[in-house]
Amino acid sequence: MIELINAEQLAKATERAKAANLLVQPTTVFRQYRVTNRDNGNQYVVNFFVRKDGKRFGGCTCKGGAAGHVCKHLAAAAGLHVCIAAQKQAA
């Protein structure tokens, strides 16, 4: 898991995500997403969570994510997660 501090931390991964052909879908579990690479069919699971002290974390099942790096899958899922979380909070 990687502590998510700010958007700048995700900047390079976000650029890689924009260049990739990724499909992000929420699962039935809140804060969990399935990210599919449409070019090769590879699928990864991205999870987000917030500790009681307010620190935010994310992780991905890809090789980079397992090594503790911010990957393009995490960046892609973060964009959707922010939208869904804001909708839930507004409701």
Shape: globular
Number of E-type strands: 5
What percentage of residues falls in helices of 4 or more residues?
A: 25-40%
Strand content: 25-35%
Descriptive notes:
The structure is a single chain. With 91 residues, the chain is α+β, with helices and mostly antiparallel strands. The chain has one domain (2-90). The protein has helices spanning 11-19, 63-66, 72-90; strands spanning 2-4, 22-26, 32-37, 43-50, 56-60. The protein has a 5-stranded antiparallel sheet. Strand 3 and strand 4 (43-50) form a beta hairpin. The protein is globular, with a radius of gyration of 13 Å.
State the main characteristics.
91 residues; alpha+beta; 5-stranded antiparallel β-sheet; 35% helix; globular
In short:
The protein is α+β, with helices and mostly antiparallel strands. It is 35% helix and 30% strand.
